[in-house]
Amino acid sequence: MPGREEKTGKLSRCFRYYREIIVIKVAVSGASGRMGQEVLKTVLNAEDTELCAAIDFYNEGQDVGTLLGTGPQGVQITSDLAEALATSGADVLVDFTRPQSVAANTITALQAGVRPVVGTTGMSREDFEQVVDLAQKKRLGCVIAPNFAIGALLMIKFAAEAAKYLPHVEIIEKHHDQKLDAPSGTAVKTAEAILEQRGEFKQGLDVEEEKIEGARGGKMPGGLRIHSVRLPGFVAHQEVIFGGVGQTLTIRHDSISRESFMSGVLLAVRAVMRLEGVVYGLENLLFE
Ligand SMILES: NC(=O)C1=CN([C@@H]2O[C@H](COP(=O)(O)OP(=O)(O)OC[C@H]3O[C@@H](n4cnc5c(N)ncnc54)[C@H](O)[C@@H]3O)[C@@H](O)[C@H]2O)C=CC1
Ligand SMILES: O=C(O)C1=N[C@H](C(=O)O)C[C@H](O)C1
């Protein structure tokens, strides 16, 4: 992995007249976390991104290179997001924190004129609407993507298509046991895409009695059920199961490592620079 000075030096030589446009300065919040560390590596390795700030409460004061075991990178972890954005010249903030932090971080970024790429799931509807209004008012791009893995986006797309013909469907999502929100953001996005296609259709007869509360999962509008499994050993997995007369169809996606999300994160970092307002879902930047 190149050191920061080495990389920017090389780019400065190659593109010295255009460097400000070509290199995107990226700040990462949640830098010490599972996703944050993967994003740090990705931003340090890409030719057109420069890591300018790393924000987390853990490992404060530590060089990100110590955290990653790569040797010094010249960026220290700080817990003060507003200060980091004000002093680092960040173009983009990539946020992988937690449901309780994501709205405040996104709003802080927009207030500072920095474009957010939000991977953190679990933002409330009210907070989402506030972010939409602020991004519009500031005329800044913002990408909010519950899943950055291409396979997951295809799963959602195929599920929406299948729902036109097989409207009875349930979702089972499985994640590691450290996950703070349930259902997953991906499951909610999948349900929304299915509901858009099947319109007024109402699923289920509601005749069953739950002998254990929650046994039938969480209920979305239209009676669409989501079941959340949390166990060590899982990363991120989902099955969308359709039922028809004498048949079932299962669409399944597995993220077996967090690298699966990184090409999508880079795509969003690049795209957000030319957007105005919020794009919810990476599929809107990938598919027609
Ligand atoms: N959109 C996508 O494709 C994906 C989204 N996620 C989501 O990303 C989020 C993070 O997941 P993980 O990395 O597994 O969690 P994690 O718990 O490993 O990391 C979260 C990090 O954020 C830090 N943090 C919390 N509040 C903060 C704040 N206000 N400012 C700065 N740092 C703060 C924590 O100290 C921790 O180090 C979750 O919401 C998860 O659902 C995870 C994987 C893929
Ligand atoms: O917490 C995770 O790990 C993941 N969160 C996202 C979600 O809630 O959908 C994306 C992916 O499933 C991994």
Coarse morphology: elongated
Q: What is the tally of helical segments?
A: 11
Number of domains: 2
The CATH homologous superfamily of the largest domain is termed: NAD(P)-binding Rossmann-like Domain
Helix and strand run: HHEHEHEHEHEHEHEHEEEEHEH
If strands are numbered along the chain, what order do they take across the biggest sheet? 3-2-1-4-5-6-12
What Rg, in angstroms, do the CA atoms define?
Answer: 20 Å
The fraction of residues in strands falls at 15-25%
Total strands: the figure is 12
In the CATH hierarchy, what is the architecture of the largest domain at level 2? 3-Layer(aba) Sandwich
What is the CA-CA span between the terminal residues?
Answer: 35 Å
Note the quaternary state here: single chain
Tell me about the largest β-sheet: 7 strands, parallel
Would you tell me the structural class of the helices and strands?
Answer: alpha/beta
Tell me the name of the CATH class of the largest domain. Answer: Alpha Beta
Report the average pLDDT across residues.
93
Binding site for (S)-2,3,4,5-tetrahydrodipicolinate: 176, 185-186
Keywords: Amino-acid biosynthesis, Cytoplasm, Diaminopimelate biosynthesis, Lysine biosynthesis, NAD, NADP, Oxidoreductase
Subunit structure: Homotetramer.
Enzyme class: oxidoreductase
Task: State the main characteristics.
288 residues; alpha/beta; Rossmann fold; Dihydrodipicolinate Reductase, domain 2; 2 domains; 7-stranded parallel beta sheet; 5-stranded mixed beta sheet; 11 helices; 12 strands; 38% helix; elongated; binds 1,4-dihydronicotinamide adenine dinucleotide; binds the ligand O=C(O)C1=N[C@H](C(=O)O)C[C@H](O)C1
